[in-house]
Design brief:
31% helix, 12 helices, Rossmann fold, 11-stranded mixed beta sheet, binds 5'-O-[hydroxy(phenylacetyl)phosphoryl]adenosine, alpha/beta, GMP Synthetase, Chain A, domain 3, 25% strand
């Protein structure tokens, strides 16, 4: 077999020096690229120009990165209000692709890419995959959904750019996916963590041991997942599970990714500017404090985003990582502010419940939170499956144990329903973790 040399197969995708630029070099590059981005927004999108004028900030006046903080935030409804293409700086005739979020309520969020945008996205996803341990010549089983969702095509283009061959299976048809994995022996698996777990379960039901498949690296993202879920997936599939982050409004997968140290996800600062703000006041928070992640794009042509409120809750650190990469580290995204529940005054994210439940003896890693209103108070019921070898007589003791741990670790009183295996719906993409039965306001 002839091994492709990485340098040839990866083309221009990898520039290790860019991942290790000094803070001064990064800041200078960011300032330069921010000016270009602001100029383009000013010249092509009246809405941006009016907001910059109102803030008294002309692109040519930008002296330092902190000047950006004079601009107001962009939020998801701004995209919806300009549906479909109102915030694009380019006519649709000059674009190369459109993606959109499914939009559970109202209109979808539509995003556009020039050829150059797709090129940079492929580079950044290739960089992310390499950072995660994928290499040119690898076979990549891509179970992210293809279509308007950015996961499928984003991972596909990144893998191709890195010099990998892609099996573009998309989500669903799990038995067939398992068969393909056992026949083709891919080294890399791309999927949401919840779907990876669903694959592990189906494989076990088929009597197949994925640990013998040759899979070595899993690129998992698109939804929050806990350290406990990582251990579960690694044990059952036998690979190294790596966290990859992104969002369609900013680009898609590959905005940030863990490296070999797995001590936070490197956010690619040569292309994005990251801030963390206090959710309530909007004020920037110092590194290390938990708040909402705000991202500004520095190289997006078709749809530049200025101070976009992601609604994702996290912390960042700019301390140098042991891998030598200098780019900011985003510590695991614990959840979206939209998904935060307030149960009797206590803030709860589904991922916190996951962290407590997954790996508890007797419980399977399949769960859903059901929120309802009892009188004036919100009530949290957690439905979680028992492992197949547990008899029903044992369910009450498992429930009591889980109630105790959720109360003592998260500080919230929850009702726990331990259910028979297979009772909780399985995901083929992003898992639905919360069923909200509360009456709608208004
Ligand atoms: O989920 C892009 C993506 C695809 C990322 C594949 C990673 C892998 P959207 O559908 O626009 O894009 O959803 C973006 O998903 O704001 C987060 O709330 C959540 N999310 C994405 N990655 C992670 C992650 C894609 N690693 C929204 N951890 C984001 C936690 C994540 N949440």
């Amino acid at each position: 077999m002839v091994a492709p040399t990485e340098a040839v197969a990866s083309g221009n995708a990898l520039h290790p020096a860019q991942e290790k630029m000094s803070r001064d070099e990064l800041s200078a590059l960011q300032l330069d690229r921010l000016r270009t981005t602001l100029r383009s927004a000013w010249n092509h999108v009246p809405w941006h120009r009016e907001r910059m004028q109102a803030a008294g900030l002309h692109p040519d006046d930008l002296r330092e990165l902190a000047d950006l903080q004079r601009l107001p935030f962009t939020v998801k409804t701004d995209l919806r209000d300009h549906y479909p293409f109102g915030l694009f700086t380019r006519p649709v005739s000059s674009l190369a692709r459109i993606h959109a979020s499914s939009g559970t309520t109202g209109k979808p969020t539509v995003v556009g890419y020039t050829m150059g945008d797709l090129d940079r996205w492929a580079d950044l996803m290739a960089r992310s995959m390499h950072c995660a341990g994928a290499r040119a010549g690898d076979l990549v089983h891509n179970a992210y959904g293809y279509g308007l969702f950015t996961g499928g095509l984003g991972a596909h283009d990144g893998a191709t750019r890195l010099g990998c061959a892609v099996v573009p299976v998309s989500g669903g048809g799990t038995e067939r996916q398992i068969a393909l994995i056992m026949d083709f022996h891919p080294r890399v698996l791309c999927a949401t963590p919840s779907y990876a777990l669903a694959m592990a379960e189906v494989a076990e039901q088929m009597g197949v041991d994925l640990r013998g498949s040759g899979l070595a690296v899993g690129m998992f993202g698109a939804e929050p997942w806990s350290a406990a879920m990582r251990e579960e997936i690694e044990a059952r599939i036998g690979l190294r599970a790596v966290d990859v982050y992104g969002l369609s409004e900013i680009m898609g997968p590959g905005v940030a990714c863990e490296c070999e140290c797995r001590a936070g996800l490197h956010g690619w600062e040569d292309h994005f500017l990251f801030e963390v703000i206090d959710r309530d006041t909007g004020k920037p928070l110092p590194d290390g404090e938990a708040g909402e992640l705000v991202i500004t794009t520095l190289t997006k042509e078709a749809l530049p985003m200025l101070r976009y409120r992601t609604r994702d809750i996290t912390r960042v650190t700019r301390e140098r990582c042991d891998c030598g990469r200098t780019h900011v580290r985003i510590l695991r995204v614990t959840g979206r502010s939209d998904d935060m529940l307030i149960i009797r005054g206590v803030n709860v994210y589904p991922s916190q419940v996951e962290a407590v439940l997954v790996g508890r003896p007797g419980l399977a890693p399949h769960y859903q939170l059901v929120v309802s209103r009892q009188g004036h108070l919100d009530h949290l019921r957690v439905e979680v499956e028992a492992l197949p070898d547990i008899s029903e007589d044992g369910y009450p003791a498992l429930a009591a144990d889980a109630v105790h741990h959720i109360k003592s670790i998260i500080g919230v009183s929850a009702e726990i329903a331990v259910l028979a295996p297979g009772s909780v719906p399985r995901s083929q993409g992003k898992a639905v973790r919360v069923r909200d039965l509360r009456p709608k306001e208004g």
